[in-house]
Amino acid sequence: MTSTLAGGATVAARPRTTGRRSPLWWAAAALPSAVAVVYTALTRGLTGDIHYVLAALRTGRAAGYSPSEVFTHRPYFYRWFVALLDRLAFFGSTEVREATMNVAGVLLAVAAGYALHAALVRRVGAREAALTAGATGLALALAPRNDFLQPEWAAVVLTVFGAAAALGLRRPWPAALLAALPFGLAVMMKYSTAATAAIGVLLVYAVDRGRAVRVAVLGVPAALALFGISVLAGSHEWQWTEDMPQINQSALSRTGIRPHFILDRSLDFLADRAVASPVLLLLPGALLLVLTRVQGRLRRAELLAVAALIGLAAQAVVVVQGNWFLYHGAQMPVVAAVVWGVAVGGARRSPPWCLGAVSLLYGVAPVVYAQLPKGAQRSWEVWVAGLVALLAAVLDVVLEKRLRNRSAVLVALSGVVLLAASIWPGSPHLVQYGKVTVTGAAYLQSQRRAAEDADRIRAELPAGVPVLYLAFGETAYDVGHPARCRYPIATFLQRTRYLPDVAELKSFKENADCVDHDPAPYAVLERPWFQPGRVDPELWRRVTAVYDCPRGEEGARLVLCVRR
Predict the structure, then answer these.
(1) Contact 50/467 with Cβ under 8 angstroms?
(2) Which residues contact 255 (CB under 8 A, 6 or more apart)?
(3) E strand or H helix at 25
(4) What is the DSSP string of 418-434?
(5) CA 499 to each of CA 355, 471, 514, 530: distance values in angstroms, whole numbers, following the listed order
(6) Which end of the chain has the least Cβ crowding within 10 Å, N or C?
(7) First to last CA, the chain
(8) pTM for this structure?
(9) Tens of pLDDT along 219-254?
């Protein structure tokens, strides 16, 4: 890609340079990558948000509703994406089913990386294509648990497929036509993921302006057509599209634009995201290395503008949703991995050894950072680490003409360590304002405790009896009994705890009817999540008119309610 960025020659005119490669190059980089990927697929498990979607789909399916008709707070095409993965994982224990879904997701990531490699190898040298595509695939396959299989992650996978199609076919218009489908589907994963698709188009633009314009021309109508299909195929899709933004108390549409808050919170968020995915710390330095190899001031200015637009688009996804969840920035580490691969693979004389050394160091940094006292975990320290990586890149630029060693094996291995940073048990799972609140091991332990709590409730239920879930999706996932309506998880009902006006939405009224229209024999109440004293009072009166909910033992999280 650097070769393509550096000049303006057409694909047909550009020779395919390979450079010198050791016969052990692939094994030296591929074997550790494969080990990390296999370890991740077997141990990562799934995060609570994926449990929520799976619970809604499974309990809704048992009630007779397809993914087209069940509410999960996720759009139509994403619901079907998760449903298809779930159908693949139809056997074995919960651990086996989650591992199967992990393997399926990893295979999608590998396929996306391979497609990108096939497209790039026609345009650049073999080393550059391999490192760029390899870093992209690894960033997806080794994504943090918070990111993996989320709508933002799925949108990035589809965007990589779209970019590969746009750049891989020889004829521009057929390439754009083929790319329009994955780009359109990327938009459909969550709608806010339109920014992720735009990032993909901008990356294509950095390589080939004409193809990017063609993709945009065909991609926008493709996304609109897919949205139309979802509205026609799902009877409630338009209603949910209108109502879903209204149940987010932190959305920009509710809070308004507060520039000072957005700037301060964005700085903290980016630091948090870099702790979870330290490849982000290498992004400024990698971008500097790429730009120093580009010929012509105008071309450098153009690419710098493209990089700025990509950064704004990546952060806009987070700002608009307003919740500042780490997985809303799932596109960020993948973009950083792409630029890192270009920077290392496209080196003319010698790979950037200083950047490689910092990559290796930062690959183990999250585990160390998580063990620091809370007072020593601060956002500004993370920004200092990014500055160190930038200075390392500056040193690489200075030393480039003095070094002639073309081997990139050791630097490539440092990239594997860097991209594997988030998968270890001691790595951060959640980070907020620079503080690591939960590590991966602690999160899995909390999931096991929650499952044990659900086991207690399940032991009191007759086999296969329907349940009304006044509980978060993870509880429904662990309990596993069927629901009786198209709103298996009482999301709209629970949100009146924060936003009383949610009770005016049509979806709330339909969800509330699940309480007393053909009610289930039992209800599972999760008091910390639903909080009876804070939800809509009329709704709680309807609940208590149908169900007898005991107070439960002191500190009990779950209560089993019985129909009166």
Answers:
(1) no
(2) 322
(3) helix 25-43
(4) HHTTTSSTTSEEEEETT
(5) 48, 18, 20, 13
(6) C
(7) 68
(8) 0.93
(9) 999 999 999 999 999 999 999 999 998 998 888 878
